Structures are given as structure tokens and as C-alpha cells.
Amino acid sequence: VVAIGTITIYGKVRMDKLNEELSKKEEAILKKEEELNEKNDQLDKKEEELDKTTSELEDAKQKEEDNKLIEQGEEAIFMKALSYKNEGNYKKAIKYFKLVLENGTQSNIKASSIYQLGLCNEKLNDKDKAISYYNKYVNTYSKDYAYFDDSYYRMGILYYEDNQLSKAKDTFYSLRYEDPDSSYNNTEKVKDILRK
What we know:
Layout: H1 2-72, H2 74-87, H3 90-103, H4 107-123, H5 127-140, H6 148-161, H7 165-178, H8 188-195
Helix pairs in contact: 1-2, 2-3, 2-4, 3-4, 4-5, 5-6, 6-7
């Protein structure tokens, strides 16, 4: 019995010692996990800083490229904008057409940029902005400019598609008054709208 008691006590002491070692190892693991989490947090912060720096660098490069383009003149900016538009990158195209308006002096290029801004916004389904650019075009330029009647037509169609029949009709009547020789005046679409 004494032997069994001794073995039991020895086993319990041994078990307690193992449990104590296990607890210490678990604490060490938790401490390492905390250190690892701290390191991960630091790494995340560094990645955010790197992303921010990369973004600032890209912005600076873009600004430098834009400045070079501005130095080349408004025609170069306009051509860049058109290439983005033709690729279907309407947001970038808008940026460069606006750059033409900010830096341009040639009225025909500025006029074309305003019309193109209307088209790009139309492609992005921002009808209100598109209409505002078309409206700006017809209120700024005369029928002698290339997109005068096109601007009236696009504006009228957008009003019509937006169920603003009265505004569409007013737009087409204005087109007839301002540019009676416009081919749009004789289209079935315009005639249909004016009959309603």
C-alpha cells in the first residue's frame, strides 16, 4: 500500500510538474502570438505607408506627364483625351478634356472639348452633366461651330429619354430657330417628338 501511495504521490507530483511546464509553454506561445500580432500590425502600417508613398509618387508622375502635355499645347491634350475616349476610358478622357478647357486658348478646340465632355458623360450615364455641357456649348458658340446642332440634338434626345417631353420639344424648337438648315430638323425622330 505504501508503495502504491508513493507511486500515486510521485505520479501526481510528476503530473503537476508536467501541467506547470505545459502552462509555461502555453504562456510562452501566447506571448509569441502577441509579439507576432504586434509585428503584423507594424507590417500593416508599413504597407499602408508604402501604398500612400506609391500613390503620391504615381500622382507626382501623372502631374509631371500632364505638365509636359500642357507644354506641348492644347492640341496634344485634346488628342490624348480623344485617345482615351476612343479606348472607352471616359473618366480619363473627361480629365483631359477639362484640362483643355483650363489651359486652352483656341475656341474651336475648347468647343470640341465641351461637346466631347457631353458625349463622355453621356457614356457614363450622367445625363445631367451631359446636358449641362451640351447646353454650355449652344450658349457659348454659334451655329458656325462644328458641334452646334449636334449639341442641340443630343440634349433634346436626352431630355426625351428622361421623359421630359416639354424640354425636349423646347430644345428642338430652339434648334430649328437657331439653325434652320440643320439636317437634324428633318429627322423622323425630331419630327416625331415635336408632334407629341
